[in-house]
Design goal:
7 helices; binds 6-phosphogluconic acid
């Protein structure tokens, strides 16, 4: 159940729910509605997931009845908006974890689950391969010829990052490539990530944000001045789509709308 919904203009629609469990349920509802609508209109639906805790909780709900049977899995393609440079079998792998938590248990054809290649290939080649994959499968319906996802789920890190667009890194300003590999010095690691042009071409982008640890950063991202280098989540502004922030009460606690939320 939704507590309340607030219009943050070009920064999106903020939808508040009670807690993380409610967030998972609402995420499932939103995913179902969006996928069903896309399939009704265009037969196929194209979705991208992120890493982090919330998509996992959504997956657990989706893999169970009655939800499992409500999705036309045969007409759905699943991608990831970012990936860590680890083997698919690692618990750190976004794609691997989503498969182990739910995609291996639902009737989606394996050929429609598009995890990144992270073994026996170098990061730049893997990013190029994923670029080609996205371009060959996801229809480009935008003026600039960018593939247009029906739905992209994103998380927001405590430092304001989203997908693998970390503060101070160059992909925040990428204009040409749609998927890149890059070093994240802060984490001393390599990441693969969708870039802003691909993310912002989507029909719908949904941020999933839960927990008190996100409250101050969420306030900065939604209500503070625009500082995309420090707060990469601010670079998400769909060109011709919808932006929804699905947040729990704890994460919304510092927003100016907090007084209008139910207590407890
Ligand atoms: C990743 C992610 C990342 C994640 C956020 C939020 O692979 O690291 O895709 O962008 O979504 O860090 O994660 P939580 O929701 O678990 O805080």
């Amino acid at each position: 159940m939704i507590d309340a919904s607030f219009d943050y203009g070009s920064r999106g629609q903020v939808v508040v729910v009670r807690d993380a469990a409610e967030l998972a349920r609402e995420t499932v509802d939103l995913a179902l509605t969006t996928v069903i609508a896309a399939q009704a209109e265009r037969r196929w639906a194209y979705a991208a997931l992120s890493g982090g805790s919330t998509p996992k909780a959504m997956g657990e709900v989706l893999a169970r009845q009655p939800y499992r049977d409500l999705v036309a899995w045969h007409y759905l393609h699943v991608f990831w908006g970012d990936e860590r440079w680890v083997p698919l079998k690692s618990p750190e792998s976004n794609g691997g974890e989503a498969r182990r938590i739910f995609l291996d248990y639902v009737p989606i054809p394996a050929s429609q689950v598009h995890t990144y290649e992270t073994e026996g290939i170098d990061p730049a080649a893997s990013a190029q391969h994923y670029t080609d994959l996205v371009r060959s499968i996801v229809p480009a319906e935008t003026e600039g010829g960018l593939p247009r996802f029906d739905l992209i789920f994103l998380g927001m890190g405590d430092d304001g990052h989203t997908a693998s667009l970390f503060p101070g890194t160059t992909p925040i300003h990428e204009e040409k490539e749609i998927v890149v590999a890059h070093e994240v010095p802060k984490l001393n690691t390599t990441r693969l990530t969708f870039t802003p042009p691909l993310l912002n071409a989507a029909r719908m982008i949904v941020f999933l944000v839960a927990g008190a640890g996100k409250a101050e950063r969420l306030k900065e991202v939604l209500e503070g001045p625009e500082r995309v280098d420090e707060l990469p989540s601010q670079v998400i502004r769909p060109t011709n789509g919808e932006l929804i922030w699905l947040v729990d009460r704890a994460a919304a606690a510092s927003l100016r709308i907090a007084d209008e939320l139910p207590r407890g």
